[in-house]
Amino acid sequence: MNTIARIQHKGQVTIPTRLRNQAGLAKGDLVEFSLQRGKIVITPKLMIDRSQFPSADYKYTPAQRKIIDARLDLALEEVRKGHVSPAFATAAEFAAALKAEAKKRNGREGAAPSEAGTRGLAAPERVRFARVPQERKGKAKPSARR
Q1: Span 4-38, pLDDT tens digits
Q2: Over the stretch 35-79, which tens digit does the pLDDT of each residue have?
Q3: 50 DSSP assignment
Q4: CA–CA separation, 119 vs 84, rounded Å?
Q5: DSSP assignment of 122-144, as one string?
Q6: Structure confidence at residue 128 (pLDDT)
Q7: Alpha carbon of 88 to those of 67, 85, 91, 125: distances in Å?
Q8: Domain extents for the chain?
Q9: If you average pLDDT over residues 84-110, what whole number do you get?
Q10: How far apart are CA 128 and CA 123, in angstroms?
Q11: Residue 63: in which H helix or E strand, if any?
């Protein structure tokens, strides 16, 4: 899109709304100006205020940092050994893989629950969740059950 604009007092130029929207620019955004092959090029710039995003070094004590680093090392070692789940393209594919794995683990005869992969929990198809009553706007809170 080519648009002509007039340079105003003190060198101000209004970037057309359509171009601003296409570039994702909004009021207050920072841009960089450069001269390339005789043309003025305007490039959006993302500037981060570091005071609003302190690094983790300021949030943890050296002892806490040592524990975190050790756990990260263990996790990375597990990944290097190949102890990771495969990637799934869809949630349905993931759910089917979970069901197949549960069926495979629960199908072992003579295995204790922890060895069968359930870790002492009921099989997934037997787990039931209690319904939690929700408050309705404008009405009194439900009385406590005895």
Answers
A1: 899 999 999 999 999 888 888 888 888 999 999 99
A2: 999 999 999 888 776 666 666 556 778 888 899 999 999 999 988
A3: G
A4: 19
A5: PPGGG---PPPP-PPTTSPPPPP
A6: 56
A7: 32, 9, 7, 22
A8: 9-45, 54-104
A9: 82
A10: 10
A11: helix 62-80
Best CA proximity match to 26, nearest among 1, 53, 11, 44: 44
The tally of CA atoms less than 13 A away on the side-chain side of residue 87 is: 1
pLDDT at 11: 92
CB 143 within 8 A of CB 121: no
Q: Which two tokens stand for residue 85?
A: 């789940």
Q: How would you classify residue 55: left for phi > 0, otherwise alpha for psi between -120 and 50, otherwise beta?
A: beta
Fold of the 9-45 domain: Pemi-like Protein 1; Chain: D (2.10.260)
